[in-house]
Amino acid sequence: GTPPIIQTIRAALAFWVKEYIGYELIERQEHIYVEKALNRLLQNKNIKVLGNTSAKRQAIVSFLIYSTTNSYATDLKNECDNDSREGKEEGLYMWGETGNKRDKPLHGAFVAALLNDLFGIQARGGCACAGPYGHSLLKVDEINSIAYRSAIKKGYVGVKPGWTRISFPYYMSNEEFEFILAALEFIATYGQRFLTLYHFDLRTGSWSAREKAILCLITNKNSNVPALPLANGIKGTKVDNKQPKDRKTAEAKPNGMVTKFEMSLKTAIEIAHLLPKFPPQRRLQEELDLNLLYFRV
Questions:
Q1: What is the Cα–Cα distance from 96 to 62, expressed in whole angstroms?
Q2: Mean pLDDT by 10 residues, the chain (297 residues)
Q3: Where are the domains of the chain?
Q4: Pick from 221, 265, 264, 225: nearest CA to 241
Q5: 20-77+87-214+278-292: CATH topology
Q6: CA-to-CA distance for 86 and 97, rounded, in angstroms?
Q7: Which InterPro entries does the UniProt record give (predicted)?
């Protein structure tokens, strides 16, 4: 048959670009990105970066984003009040709401879905290939491990715990880098509110947007949201895009990408404010103990 000529040429060009730029420059830029990301994410009390954060690493970060309850915790509030906000003049920052108690983490695949649906950011959510290391990272003991295995054998793959992973390649712009961090901080603050807009399939572990709930939110007469990014992926949905006419013009300007990112974050915040701050725990139709789940549903 015909050999994959085009694919071979594209692969060769990718290696040529790497040779032209040089691995030293690539390593240096990725080190800058991952160090900045760690310094910022480690300050967020709703984000837990997995793995050794002091050892040299590639520009890849695996993390958990925790949900919160409305149980007031004085000590947590004091910690938040004492947290310095100095030295943060550059970049887009989102900070968590104070006075809340940290609860179970959000499902890794759910966080990845929000990054994609709200901001167009691609991430990976779920379990790593190295199961024993995953047990160690998440502190899964033998009893829970056996319980997970038993549930999976019954067809409930969705009980598998996991996390979200994102990378910071050397070729991304500083604006894109700042936008990704701001998106992560947004989900750390508002992510759990979007649980009501998604359906969770316990048998596959996948999350899908609930069309009726989203359409209800869009058509709300009291809603002034410019556009709902979640609706773009719904087949057959006709959404009146109320974005400003000059948006494309703004994106074409020197700071156009920054303007686009800021508008995306602003829209996401407006959507979040239409949703319940502490969504109720959903009921699972399957006969499975909800306490077995490592994550919030």
A1: 20
A2: 90 95 95 97 96 93 93 46 39 53 93 94 86 91 94 92 96 95 96 94 92 78 57 49 51 68 90 90 77 90
A3: 20-77+87-214+278-292
A4: 225
A5: Aspartate Aminotransferase, domain 1 (3.90.1150)
A6: 18
A7: PyrdxlP-dep_Trfase (IPR015424), PyrdxlP-dep_Trfase_small (IPR015422)
